[in-house]
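Archive entry: two folds, one per protein. Generate the first.
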Amino acid sequence: MGSGDPSGLQNRRELALLALVSSTLTRFRQKFMYAIRHVLAIGLIVGSAHPQTRPHVANSQSNYLGFDRNVYPGDAAMDELRKTFSFTGYWLNAPPGSASSNWLGKRTLLGEKGFGFLVLFNGRSYAQLKKGDPRALGEMDGKEAVRLAGVEGFPSRSIIFLDQEEGGRLLPEQRSYLHAWVDAVTKAGYGAGVYCSGIASKEAGRATVTTARDIRENADARKIEFFVANDQCPPSPGCVKSAPPPAGSGIDAKDGNCYAGNIFVDLDAATSADPSRGR
């Protein structure tokens, strides 16, 4: 209906969104109305997957608060979010449940705003992998992740995190895909990471396993960085004011969820303001 200017409409939407975000975050800051979820949730650990190597945790710096979100909230909203968050998730390909990524083309702008980056690439589901050659798909997707990172301007030292949505012990197809993806990314000169679950899954008897530990213990000398999720409850109706401490074990970490105006984000805790070294 009508022939209004689409860009003008977008600008008005962004300004309206900014007003909501600004009002809510200011109220949170003034009244400290921030609350972390009462159970473990998403958090950051950056470290080697070599079985005998513990992940590095900065000794001299307090933790940093970041967020990730499937849908880019708009340039104006990011200005307000920057007042609270040090880094942002950045999807190279379509996030879960989306047809495409609307984060593409925003790296330079977000860097100028002072954001660090958590660079994400959405991996394939088991249902997709069992219909094809998992190793070939992993290699293809790893090369695509590298290509997109290069197009977006992320330097070759940047860490790209593969989003492993399905939890529990990896099935052979999933492990083959992940290893091929990691090999393709590291061969191209980028760091390879995995964004995966740290929730314990029950197996036969009383045995339990977490996806993060399973990947780490079966890395076969591959260097893999980890961003570990432990997301076991619905989101709280607020935000945390300060970053919860990421764990140093390579498996467990903390964070929460946040509603800023009508924007929902996952809160991330990191020992670096630029977890993917993407600046």
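Generate the second and append.
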Amino acid sequence: MVKVADIMAGDMKNARENSIQESGSIFPEFHKIIQRSDKETYLKQRSRVIWLTGLSGSGKTTLGSYLEKELFSMGYLTQMLDGDNIRSGINANLSFSDEDRRENIRRIAEVSKLFLHCGIIVISCFISPTREIRAMARKIIGPEDFLEIYVNAPLEICEQRDVKGLYKLARNGKISDFTGIDSPFEAPANCNLEIRTDQLTVKESSRQLLDFVLPWIRNGR
């Protein structure tokens, strides 16, 4: 039997494994549901997870929103996932500790995978600061479906933008574990696309992203 203490301590992995081992009641029946390929054919698109990573203020959500609107206008079905929205809902119980950052991305990757198998194009906009965390997301989603987009702007540019005022708060010591200030960001080593938002206009950056994505999602169009 699963111990309540395991769950209360946050040891969800052990709880899950114990539950499966002890109850023997988990029997995935994916073969009984309508397959992803059928849904993609119906929607006339190929589902992918477009994973935008970068510092706060680099332009991830701005580009993700533009991409979603453009694809929607072309008849594509999309779902955008954004850090603030996710943390106000499904991940509201998580902090910004290293452990909780990892759990944050694990849950997001699993949610992205569910949408992926519905034939939907997923636009995930998350700092996802370390290579290990992004590698975990790629493994969960599947490397063939995971498109890593590095939205790159230097820290000083992101601080100048500081749309949410978070950098100022971090510099003043009012918030801790803030990526780029007292928590590291590891730039991707082998991303699918890098967009230098400090060197391009929003329109140019958005067009670069759209032009890259379209060949990956076309299905009989």
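Annotation attached to the second fold: Residues 1-13 have pLDDT under 50 and may be disordered. The first strand starts at residue 49 and ends at 53.
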